[in-house]
Design a protein that fits this description.
single chain, mainly alpha, Growth Hormone, Chain: A, 15 helices, about 70% helix, about 0% strand, disordered C terminus, MFS_dom
Length: about 425
Amino acid sequence: MRTVLRRPDFRLLFVAVLASMAAESVLLLALAVWVKDLTGSDGLAGATIFAIIAPMTLAPLVGWLVDRYPRRPFFVAANLATAVLLSPLFLVRDRADVRIVYVVAALYGLSYIMLSAVLSGLIRQLVPSELLPDANGVLQTVRQGLRLVGPLAGAALYAAVGGWLLVALAMTGFLTAAAVVGPLRVAETGVPAADPRRPGELAAGLRHLAGEAALRRALLGYGLGSLVMGFTESLIFAYVDQGLHRDVAFVGVLVTVQGIGGLVGGLLSATVVRRVGEVGALAAGVTLFGPAALALAYPRLWLGVLALLLAGLSLPLTMVGLHTLIQRRTPSGLLGRVSAASDALVSGPQAVSIGTGALLVGVLDYRLLFVLVGLVTTAAGGYLWHGRRLSPPTPPTPPVRLPRPRRAPTAAPPAAVEPEVVGAPPPPGPVPS
């Protein structure tokens, strides 16, 4: 990771992404808390998260739009637009203004898809192929660290200073990202404008995902795991309440443990991709979730801590493996559509899984559901591991050895001059007439 951070252009992008990710992490939970504070309703607060997720259905259109423009200007414009679209939140006063929060949340969800799609292409243009795992690993490490502290910090800031100041801080983060990337010089190659008159351009990303063998297996395997991974969002509350017999606030401690595992996973992800390839890293991440879920079916605190460390470790491996695979196997002109489509194909099953888990935990034993999650994710990981040869490990780049400079040839010593002898005969030559 230190190698990629030595690149001045990537360091600028890293600072920009850090600013926008920080704004994102403090804002997500705070919007739901704000709605809860205004209405007193848990259901209306949960609907805020749904409003953010709902724009995923527009992912093909968003990806098509991203592919029509150069990456750097689009990244700058998207961050500026995100800062502007947050400004209506300053008008929120009471329960009657909750609809403003929902509209902003939906628009923010749309901008999140845009930023994610354009960032993938921008990384591809800035970083050579052999450093893509390091670049994605660095960003996943930051994301996991912010996920560890960001939502809680956002909720605490909302409680301390109110929603308006929190919105101002979030806007500052997006404006900072735009300002930092603005001066960046990027060779914008391979980003042709999609023809808006061709409807097939919208589905080009999905066609590429279906036609490329490694990407197809990656999304099928990860999608299968995602169908049950979301169960844990509800099961963890039953685990703490019924299994450990602790207060629901203890969930926060376990989430912190999972975040620590995520940090470790982010640091290791580039090495894993190089050892087993992108599909292999994705397989390792999904498979690790299996034993973690099985361990949570047996409620013991020490075992739960180990399980959540393992679950946290798995997430960066899956994300870095998937993102690196997409960047390496997708033409630059399609990268926006492919990234947006893959996000939708992963987020859709996860959203369904979260809702299904919330229903099932009320009628089935949570331990049985954890076993189900463990078995399905282990099977999905096995399916991915079986296809790991579709993306073989990247051999380490041998160090470049420059030829040694040759020494300049040493000048021959001057010939010895015979001393002239007085009275000696003249040298041979033409006889004077």
